[in-house]
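Reposting from the mailing list since nobody answered there.

I have sequence plus structure tokens for a pair of proteins and want to know whether others read the tokens the same way I do. The first protein:
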Amino acid sequence: MSAGDATGNGGFRLKRYVPAAEWLLHYRREDLPGDLIAGTITAILLIPQAMAYSLLAGLPPEIGLYASIVPPIIYALFGSSRALAVGPVAVASLMVAAALGNIAPDGGTLYIAGALVLSMLVGLMLLVTGMLRMGWVANFLSHPVMSGFTSAAALLIAASQLKHLFGLSVPRGLRIDQTLMQLFEQMGSANGVAMAIGFSSMALLLFIRGPLPRLLKSRGMPETLAGLIVKAGPLVLVVVMTAISAGFMLHERSGLNVVGAIPAGLPPLGMPDFANVPWVKLLPSAALIALVSFVESVAVGRALASRRRQKIDANAELLGLGFANIAGAFSGASPVCGGFSRSVVNFEAGANTQLAAIVTASLIGLSLVTFAPALTDLPQAVLAAIIVIAVLGLVDLKTPVEVWRYDKRDGVALVVTFLAVLAMGIEEGIAVGVILSLFLYLWRTSRPHMAIVGRVGDSEHFRNIRRHKVRTLPDLLAVRVDESLYFANANYLEERLLGEAADNPQVRHVLLICSAVNAIDASALETLEKLISELSMAGVRFHLAEVKGPVMDKLEAVGFPELLKQMGGHIFLSTHEAFDAVEKGRI
């Protein structure tokens, strides 16, 4: 083996375990400007967003900033997406708040320690799942369930921030109706200054997201510069409102709630406190956060990768997110995953590689070192406004209508998940959605579509007799089953074929067309064997056609073709061959 081959094999192995090697070893100079610009713009967006999502999780604002430094750098090395921006996100932050509320309802040091333990648990679960190459677990959260969950979570998030917008005190962990009732009862004590700052901030953010870009473009401003101004809007709002709050001493004079002192400097390194945190109680929540985080990250990563004809590896994403969360646990961070809006901004700003994420993390670390004390008087109402405006886009009104029109059963799963999350909470609501989706799948596949087919003219094409003008044979019942055969639908198949044979006394041959059958389990095999015997006693022969190779291999392994042959049955390569054999009297 040549030295070049050895280097090539070594490079391949390195890329397999450290996907960043693919762009690090072959970094192009022309990619650098895009990465630097994207990293800077994403940092401008992420600084206020990270603090806001930390507030949503019930944690100090610096925890969100810590989650935006070390974890993204680690993901940059082990993740497979070149544009995914990792950090705290709204939905995961809400789930963190729900999980920590179970072990530390009054907050305090246990609450913060629990967040770090939760990051470690989430990271370990993602890591183990990735090592076992179980990226397919994401399939258990169907699109309708995720849509219903996300929309309900967005409403819960918005409702949880109303207390900051009105300057009121409402306990954590309440249902949405309880939260609204508490707010209504306390409305007489609302803080007018908090309301003025909060709702004016929301109005400004809506203006920045909507009319401002059009206004700037109409004045002849270049699109790139206009986009930068829009993306910097939340950070400018934070700076202005903090200056107003500090200048007028609104915290002291008007009782305005502010974020308080933010420790200056980089995140402290340390081991999560498993000794004092009841981590076993956090395991179910950690599993759910890991699953939702993985699904969201992969969905965003795939969407962005497809736009550049790139691809991501789901198992590599599990490893990347796992390492990122574990690193976060050691650096004072709450759980992280890939955020949609942040990743899109990163992508559209020109990110070519994960160097952009490293630039973002470096700038956030620099801001903590230099500007953290200046944010002491930042009103919590401003962060609440940022959260509310950010989650408005998560409420999906289009998907429920489309899903309901396409498949009522999926529509039911979506609506039930939505209502369950609102009524029961995050974890219980998702569990209801997943269980209902699995039940509906079993119910649907337990009664598979089955079509009696006939020949189209003199061709070799066969179609459903109810949809097409076809020619059939009086002594042949040809049935196509459009589903794999397994324990849930085996009896239905048996009853349907026996019933059709009983209703047509002239039938002497039953042909089961298996073109859509990808698998036959042991229960269905037993049913087929019983069906052969029952039809044989009635003077009817049973045949198969278009059996796929993997299915045939399993049937041959247990001697099924020989049993069928003993009963006068055959396995035909095609439906055309079976029709010819019956029509010409060869069987």
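The second protein, same order (residues first, tokens after):
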Amino acid sequence: MKTLIIGGVAGGATAAARLRRLDEKAEIIVLERGEFVSFANCGLPYYIGGVITEKSALTLQTPQSFKTRFNVEVRTFNEAVNIDPSAKTVTVKNLLNGETYEETYDDLVISPGAAPIKPNIEGIESENVFTLRNIPDTFRIKRFMEENSPKTAVVVGGGYIGIEMAENLAEAGLKVSVVELSDHLIASLDGDMAADLHRYLRSKGIDLYLSNGVTAICGDRVVLQKGECQADMVLLSVGVRPETELARKCGISLNDRGSIIVNRRMQTNIPHIYAVGDAVETEDFITKKPSFIPLAGPANKQGRIAADNIAGYPTEYTGTQGSAVLKVFDMTVATTGLNEKNARLAGIDYDKTYIFSAPHATYYPGGTNMSIKVLWDKNTHKLLGAQIVGFDGVDKRLDVFATAIRLGASVTDLTTLELCYAPPFGSAKDPVNMIGFVAENIISGKQKQFFWHDVDLLPRDGSVYLLDTRTPAEYARSNIEGFVNIPLDSLRQRIDEIPTDKPVYVHCHSGHRSYIACRILSAHGTDCYNLAGGWRLYDSVTSDAKRK
């Protein structure tokens, strides 16, 4: 049997290798219009920033290594230009000599990927404007920097690639600005969790232009909807669109976005044609609704599943939950599952909470607290999503949350997880466990919450009592209007000052001391509410809002 694979990166390369492992006798041909196959898309920014120094490190396989190890024929600079499903042939153009030829198939796998979106604005085709999607793009950017020694750069788009490029351009010595249409960076984060990232990037000298967009690129100036900034070079990172014109021409079903519609076996509507990777519509693992989440991990899994089915081993792709992680200087940002925006769009009745927790035992040297937020379904208590912003230990915890979501865990199941503990690595009560404990208290009614967005809406007319349980020194440095300072350690001695005939809203720095205060006050008959995430989250979000 002969399998033809269009596209030799991620999903296509994985399908070829997997199919060979399952069927030693199959004829497998990979058509790739570019020069490189199986290259490390996610490593491209780090070559530009000088972290990766060797060009060869960007390619995981070559046509020669594919042939030697897998007996797969890889034809680079060969572009599929037409598919005839009835004849089961593909018309291929050799881009080196311009000749075309026909190639037959028994099964066809399409993995064309997605192309960077280039907005229709003045100056978009200028020589100092770049996109980053493949190795030639990387080399063009690197060559421009070496030949022109730019001093300033603007990154248009605040997604994962955009922020990675901002970091690497800054590390290369450029003054970097990021322009983002949304009010916060990293769309999979909620705005409150992005506030710490914004503050950190500004501390590294990166200027942020949020809720703003580019209207024109004029030489070394980028004109914005509000203002302008200098840019010797511009990097566009405003998203991608599926490259599916070839699929459309042969009658493969597409959705309104242009993504290829496949079933769980990665089969299109045309028999013996499969599609994988960034070009396909996938199912959101949590909502079960169609989604477009172009990530390398899902693309590789889909390539494996297509190969399994071609080889006669029925397997299914069960959906994408969008687990992703970002390194930005020393900070780590990681997300999985739904954020609040997507939970609302899906019509899910959800609850949420936050903690601010150390990555390992606090008495062990080093370690900086990480900010963790989780969402769960109010009715079933199933985990819906998690977001973490911090430094050490972020990826470890996010992977636990991602696994728990994939296995259908409830948020209270987190209390039962037995995770590795030694002082350099974690705590006897790991932050993952702590999230479970907090959620369990909320679900059981032991703790009532209010949130940073409720604080300024609380009445200051005496109908509620506002209590700050931080130390006097903390209170003196900064406090929220209307909150009375009674430190936690003095609360029992001053309990008579707290009214029992009105609701009491309590906060501390992170939410831990105020939780203890609420337990004390509840024991005395007080209707008490704890500020989730504490003063630090409120201050982070409100301070960030003033900078926008």
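Reply #1 (J.P.):
I read it the same way you do. The mean pLDDT is 94.
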